[in-house]
Queue: 2 jobs
Job 1
Amino acid sequence: MSATVLGRIEPLTWENDFFAVNSALLSLDARGAVLDSHGLQGFDIVQCRVLSQQTAELDALGEMGFRLVEGEVDCVLGVSATSRPDGIRIARAEHIPLLREAASAAFAFSRFRAPWYQPADSGRFYAQWSENAVRGTFDHQCLLAVNEQGDMQGFISLRELPDGSGRVGLLATLPEAQGLGVGQRMIAAATDWCRVRRLSRLHIATQLSNLPALRLYHRCGGVVERTAYWLYR
């Protein structure tokens, strides 16, 4: 008997235009339609994010031909009375070329990888994300960490969520600034950004394999909220 899951399928319009593929997102929903592998054949790629405790759904998706792409950890930080640390600037349009280059290198390997996507697609995607953050589309703002000479050491993008919280979109420290506390400075700037906007908490996600990021979030007071897996078919 073929495995089935309950959910809904939504084409990923922006991603399809950007990557030139026909992809969709499968959202699991107990009130959704019964889906099987035949209902997914119209797409080149079907993505699905599954919470790690949804073991029955993981088994069913595996029987339908879905493959594990990566694990994800979602952390949450409280927002306390702080001030913006030194060496933090708002990214402007003139910073976009440097940001695109840095984001492309920092996120060259992600879930947008072979064999589902082309080798350069991940870097292109996150380069565009960084530019969009500066322009206030998708993420609402991008902040830069700079040294005393004004050279960029890292960047973080942020957005407000409808539930009164904030979320980090991108966070990266440049290789030459590793070990200088830049990550902690950017997290502090992010929580201050939330405080100014009266947001109650800050969400941030990373790959399950990214142990340096997980250690950083823990040092900054982050607590693991949930874990999940990205599967593709």
Job 2
Amino acid sequence: MDITFGGNKVNLEGKEIKVGDVAPSFKAIKRDLSDFNSDDLKGKIVVYSVAPSIDTPVCALQATTFNEEATKLSDDVKIVTVTVDLPFAQERFCSVKGIENADIVSDYKYKEFGKKFGFMIEELQLLARGVVIVDRDGKVAYVEYVPEVTHDVNFDKALEEVKKLK
């Protein structure tokens, strides 16, 4: 798979995640510096919104759009934005943007999400942009790796896939 960042080809660490794979368990850091454990979401539909940094316009749009869409989805759908931003920056962003319906977690410490899901950009130690949707049984139901990291995810397609799982 070819991924570029600003037009320059980058290499992704880890194995590319595919539809039908069992979603790997991972730890990340919550905004309050406690551990996030993906196993705590078993039995729910989970939308992992993956972005390099919430401090860029495209990433901010991605986080706020999924936050808004979360209010239209059922309670058994969980939106989790994953970046490598420090939890302090994530907390500031959520406070300023009013993010209340989606979780934002940081992969800065363990880097388990990036490596286990194949989103870690080797050269930058940032996450590539994309979406991974995991069904109630823990299987990957949808994956999007955005070919150019500075471009948007396909919100409509991701939300359409979530609605199929309800």
